[in-house]
Design brief:
By secondary structure, this protein is an alpha/beta fold. The chain has two domains: about 170 residues, Rossmann fold, CATH 3.40.50.2000; about 100 residues, no CATH class. Helices cover about 35% and strands about 25% of the residues. It has nine helices and 13 strands. The protein has a six-stranded parallel beta sheet with strand order 3-2-1-4-5-6, sandwiched between helices. It has a four-stranded mixed beta sheet with strand order 8-7-10-9. α3 crosses α5.
Length: about 280
């Protein structure tokens, strides 16, 4: 079997466990590929069954912090495609399981299905998992893994209890956990930090998170022989007045990746206007 392993390459416990497991699997005849930003410290020598692939993160002035998750997702796609990896074993939900899921979605678009095994280590749940900023990403990454393992029984019980206590079941989606909220309206919403549909959320109620930052106005323009074709959407609505019908009237479309048609045609605008007035 060809196995991809993603881990932190340092002396930390998760890196040591991942490396030693990979080495033992290689001794049993499996082909193991380590994919990380430097060679794991416990990986002393490579062989025909032990391989290392470095994740390079380009230094680009636009980014204040280098986007390691994106670089890792791209590298996973390359390695899995090139070496025909059978299964991907990632240690740590964030950022590794998160990046693995992104790579899996890209691979699926190319007709390649890669199962993901996520092994949780202590701080996945006790520190990172309990941080309100990372909770949505940790929960999502765990739920999107094909198999989840833990390095201890107590950690498994803590993880299961965390999800069940808040949601009553371990089978939840990101939309169960994260909400788009305005006024009395609450809708499931997509998006996580550091992805194209970036969203940041904060604790809300009943174990859920509420989106507080992310994509707002989205405008799309296409051109044909008749001129531009315009579409747009905004996260809530065009009015900040809670009594207005336009306070939340775009939330449903926004949460479902839908847009509304727009036009700069004066005649169409006038024909559809509810009120026309001159401010002078």
């Amino acid at each position: 079997m060809k196995i991809g392993v993603v881990c932190y390459p340092t002396f930390g416990g998760s890196g040591v466990v991942a490396t030693e497991l990979g080495i033992e699997l290689s001794k049993k005849g499996h082909e193991v590929h380590f994919i990380t930003y430097s060679q794991p410290v416990r990986l002393d020598a490579l062989s025909s069954n032990l391989h290392y692939h470095e994740v390079n993160v380009p230094d680009y002035p636009l980014f204040k912090y280098e986007p390691y998750e994106l670089a890792l997702s791209s590298k996973l796609f390359d390695v899995i495609s090139k070496y025909k990896i059978d299964v991907l074993h990632v240690h740590y939900a964030i950022p590794h399981a998160y990046a693995a899921y992104m790579a899996k979605k890209i691979l699926k678009e190319n007709g390649y299905n890669i199962p993901i095994i996520t092994t949780l280590h202590g701080t996945d749940i006790t520190l990172v998992g309990n941080n309100p900023f990372y909770k949505p990403a940790v929960t999502f990454s765990i739920n999107k893994s094909d198999i989840v393992t833990c390095v201890s029984k107590s950690l498994m019980e803590d993880t299961r209890a965390y999800i069940i206590n808040n949601f009553g079941s371990i089978k939840i989606t990101l939309g169960d956990f994260q909400k788009l909220v305005r006024g009395d309206k609450e809708l499931p919403i997509w998006g996580l930090p550091d992805v194209i549909t970036a969203m940041s959320s904060r604790p809300y109620k009943d174990g859920k998170q509420k989106v507080t930052q992310g994509e707002s106005y989205i405008g799309l323009v296409r051109f044909n022989e008749n001129g531009p074709i315009l579409e747009s959407i905004i996260s809530f609505g065009n009015s900040d007045n809670p009594d207005s019908e336009h306070y939340t009237d775009q939330m449903e479309k926004y949460s479902k990746f839908q847009t509304k048609k727009m036009t700069f045609d004066k005649n169409i605008i006038y024909s559809q206007a509810k009120k026309i007035y001159n401010p002078n």
